[in-house]
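Researcher: Re-running this chain for the archive, since the previous output was lost when a drive failed. Same request as before.
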Amino acid sequence: MDMKSLHEKFRAALAGARVICDEVDKADRDFTAEERQKVAGYLDEAAGYKKQIQQAEGDEAIRKAILDMGGGIELSSKQTDNGSDEGHSAGKGQTIGEQFVQADAFQTWMKQFPGGRVPESAKGIMSPPIGFKSFLGRKTLITGADDTQAGAFVQTDYTGIYEPLGRMPLVLRSLISIRQTTSDLVEFVRQTTQVAEAATVAEANVTTYSGATGEVEGEKPEGAVEFEKVTATVKTIAVWIPATKRALSDASQLRGIIDQELRDDIEEELENQVLNGNGVGENFTGVLNTAGILTQLWNTDILTTTRQAKTTLKTTGRATPTAWLMNPSDWETIELLQDANNRYYWGGPLANGEPRLWGVPVVECESKAAGSAILADWRKAVMWDRERATLSISDSHADFFIRNMIAILAEMRAAFGLIRPSAFIEVDLTSGS
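Model: Regenerated structure tokens:
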């Protein structure tokens, strides 16, 4: 199909789509399913014609460039000292391929193959070099890297692929208890002492106990229990980024990327606060800084220490652990442990299934610093969601309005606390620390 026909069909396809759009706009209504299908068909058809037009224009430009660069090319089987050709000389207008196969040197070389057919068994053969007069004196290499040469005809293939930098996996939200709140303060009651006065009691043998020999009072012991009221304040975690309206308009994908980056950053900080927050200012009081959590010191080796921690949590903390939380490097150290016969305790590289240590699931967490692990009943850690991560934009920041800039803000609000600190034990994984 010639260029004129391609342009006509391209315009006709666009016109067909435009007619349907005008009808919908005039009626002030949404597209019907049939109309959407027709418009999509017209646009696909127009895109196909446009691609053919671009290819045709590119092919024509390449042909012209080759003709411009190859004008006056002559082929020679032998050149004299003054540069004149001897033997066969191709006439003007012949392609380089035609000049090559008609060269005397090539024709002579081909005589070794009867009928001009090179047998499939022939290997390592090479024809003699054929000189091209006009090319011998060229000093500029024709490349595809230069826009002034063949590179001008190279079209970029925009794949639409976007590959973000990786972020650490977030694990704590799936371990702890999540609840909702509509207040800025969350209160809960925590037991500090439990009833421990129960005892056997003999039957009374007197109505009025005087303490005389043989008298049995029969009085039951009185128990005691104590509580404390704990207040957790809702904290705000936020981050924002500036952007120009033009950038967001020209690259529609950019807004989605920014939104996801802001959300991910907030979630990472939330996990860090839940674990490591020091309780100062607007920081959470994280697990590791909550008063009352248990500790297990290093003893003999890492396996002995971790097993004793499980016992301590059960007998002192009165808790059944739901998971170990440890830095990936610490879990690597444990998984690489071998017995006296160099056999991996944990099955080695071919081990399958959920990673466990002393029967308790192991969760790797990069927010947890290496050197210690946390064994806990993670259900006793509670986060109250006041406001999940939200995004908002505004041009009211500073002079953003007159500079056509906007601020994209992400924030969330939540409170956190351990309703039973003794259900958590920090375990030392390093000797001498």
